[in-house]
Amino acid sequence: MEPQVTTPVAGSADVDDRATIGAGTRVWHLAQVRENAVIGQDCIIGRGAYIGPGVRVGDRCKIQNHALVYEPAVLEDGAFVGPAVVFTNDYFPRAVTPDGRLKSADDWVPAGVTVRAGASLGARAVCVAPVTIGRWAMVAAGAVVTRDVPDFALVAGVPARRVRWVGHAGVPLEDVGAGRFRCPATGREYVEAHGVLAPATE
Fold it and tell me: Which of the residues 112, 121, 133, 195 has an alpha carbon 20 to 30 A from that of 79?
C-alpha cells in the first residue's frame, strides 16, 4: 500500500506570507499563523490553533487543536502544547485605557510564556504570562500556571503546584532514597538537590 501524502499546509489554514515555516512542518485545517512567527522543522500545528505575531517555535514541537499561543511566546525544541491550551500575554488586561479609549498595541507591553525543551502542557492548561515552563516539565490538564515551573516537575491544580517529578519519558519518577529517583519506563536515574532535579549523569 502506498504511503498517504499529507499536504504540509491545509488549504483552510491562514498562514501569513511573512511567517516562516520549517521543512516537514504540517499546519492543519483552520489554523492561523500570524506575521513574523517562526516555526521550526517537523512540527505539527493542529486544527484551529493560533500562533501569534513573532512567536518562536523550535523543531519537532506539537501544538494541538485550538491551542492559543499568543505573542511573544517562545517554545524550544520538542515542546508539546495540548488541545485548547492558552498562553496569556497581558498581566493586567483591559480593553480600554484609564481615560476610556480603546487600547491599542502602543498602550501595553506584552508578557510572554517560555516553554523549555521537551516540556509538555496538558489539555486546557492556562499559562499566565510571564512564566517559564522548565525543561521536560509536565503541566497537568486543566492546571493554571502562575509561576515558573522547575525542570522535570509535574505540576497540577489551580494555581499549579509541583506534585511529583517526571523524567524524559513523562512518567512520574520513583523515589529510591537519598535524593535519587528512577524512571520506571527507561530506568534512567535523576538526583534532587535543593529543590532542583537533574539527570544523574549531568
Answer: 195
